[in-house]
Write a structure and sequence with these properties.
The chain has 116 residues and is mostly beta strands. The chain contains no helices and 11 strands.
Length: 116
Amino acid sequence: DVQMMESGGGLVQPGGSLRLSCTGSGFSFEYYALTWFRQAPGKGIEWVSVINERGFSATYADSVQGRFFASRDNTKKTLYLQMNNLKPEDTANYFCNVNLAGKDYRGQGTQVTVSS
């Protein structure tokens, strides 16, 4: 079965940093682009970033551009999201997603709370 599992969330003060991880299993991890999404309380799902199969190219939402950086280690089947200069509006449940043959697979997410 395809599984995605996120970790690394927590409580951080404004201006702080966190690194999220996402491990994938049940599919050929290295052959697929991977996406980060987030969902804040009471709001819709927001696309955050997408990284290509080899990890050479990533694109970001305007709201996180220059602060968040996606990377991946295909040997470890792990996707990362380095989040710097965090703001209260970054508070959300973050989850990773892979699209396989038109079907999306995502984990339960990891909660990030930015508060003083």
